Amino acid sequence: MEILGNTLGEIAGEKAGIFKHGVPAFTVPQPNEAMCVLEDKASMVNAHLQIAPPLDANLLNGLKLGLEGEHQYINAGLAIGLSSTWLQRTGHLDVTYLHQDSTLPEQFIRGLTTASLQGRAQVVPDQHIDGESFGDLVFYLDGAHSPESMVICANWFSWAIEGNNQPNQLNHLPQNNGKSLDALQKNHVEGCRKNFTQILLFNCMSVRDPQLLLPHLLKTCATHGVYFKKALFVPNMSVYYKVGSHALPPTDSQVDLSWQFTLQRYWENLIQGDKGDANNLNAVCEEVQDDTGMSVRTCKNSAVFPSLPLAIKWLRDSVQQNQSIRFQVLVTGSLHLVGDVLRLIKK
């Protein structure tokens, strides 16, 4: 934000810096504030700006996009406009498919339906839990970090767990980790007899405003009847492992958790509807030690862990201690956090 600007117009102006004289430019439908800036910038450099419509799902011949989320049809339309125009200009296509007036080439359909992007609308079971408990801890990862993307993330998560919680529906099941389809189906149906608990694993950079992020997440999930049993706030691991740095990362006891405590206070007040002094929250929170001796601040609806590995350990322990419950963990707020979780939960 400190680089791109604080308004849609400012951000659009910075993004439009890529426009070049005589080179086709593409965008998707935008709010007027942003579109006017894009059009002005394109006119200044004599770039032909075109608006790519969202992909018509009927052109996929009954298949689904490889990337989850309704917003991906907007991205797919932009990809079609860009790629077909480049192919035409380089002599590989006679026409562009920007306006989707005819069927798409088979190569386009294959690319759109097999595309994958880690950390965006991604479902991953904890691969360190095997046997009958496999699937009892599933991570739903999306690196949303803006109010708009938080709404999209909340909608996707709610739809995804609704599909996962229904017997005989494998639409949203994650990769089967080498299991046969019959075994996965059996595991899924047995799991649907269990209770489901939703957990939020969250962090965002301090330049972000949690008062613009968390309410959107909470309210959007609530419209689907989805409520988080507990929110876990942790610092990102990757902050302490910078490329080229020879400094040792701080130990758990040395990590500054003041930002995570701020997130926790806001979450508790949001859940409880408490409009009073946030400092009063200290009365309903307590410091507890886990079996490793590390201190965790836990409240009625949330907990702050000094490190991500400790939070993952708590989730795994919870699975072992609650055999009748399946834990569905939404990881969001930061792409750094999502990447850290992926590194920890994959074998």
Automatic annotation (TrEMBL):
<keyword id="KW-0436">Ligase</keyword>
<dbReference type="GO" id="GO:0006730">
    <property type="term" value="P:one-carbon metabolic process"/>
</dbReference>
<keyword id="KW-0067">ATP-binding</keyword>
<dbReference type="GO" id="GO:0046872">
    <property type="term" value="F:metal ion binding"/>
</dbReference>
<dbReference type="GO" id="GO:0005739">
    <property type="term" value="C:mitochondrion"/>
</dbReference>
<dbReference type="InterPro" id="IPR001645">
    <property type="entry name" value="Folylpolyglutamate_synth"/>
</dbReference>
<comment type="pathway">
    <text>Cofactor biosynthesis; tetrahydrofolylpolyglutamate biosynthesis.</text>
</comment>
<keyword id="KW-0547">Nucleotide-binding</keyword>
<dbReference type="InterPro" id="IPR036565">
    <property type="entry name" value="Mur-like_cat_sf"/>
</dbReference>
<keyword id="KW-0479">Metal-binding</keyword>
<dbReference type="GO" id="GO:0005524">
    <property type="term" value="F:ATP binding"/>
</dbReference>
<keyword id="KW-0460">Magnesium</keyword>
<dbReference type="GO" id="GO:0005829">
    <property type="term" value="C:cytosol"/>
</dbReference>
<comment type="similarity">
    <text>Belongs to the folylpolyglutamate synthase family.</text>
</comment>
<dbReference type="InterPro" id="IPR036615">
    <property type="entry name" value="Mur_ligase_C_dom_sf"/>
</dbReference>
<protein>
    <recommendedName>
        <fullName>Folylpolyglutamate synthase</fullName>
        <ecNumber>6.3.2.17</ecNumber>
    </recommendedName>
</protein>
<keyword id="KW-0554">One-carbon metabolism</keyword>
<dbReference type="GO" id="GO:0004326">
    <property type="term" value="F:tetrahydrofolylpolyglutamate synthase activity"/>
</dbReference>
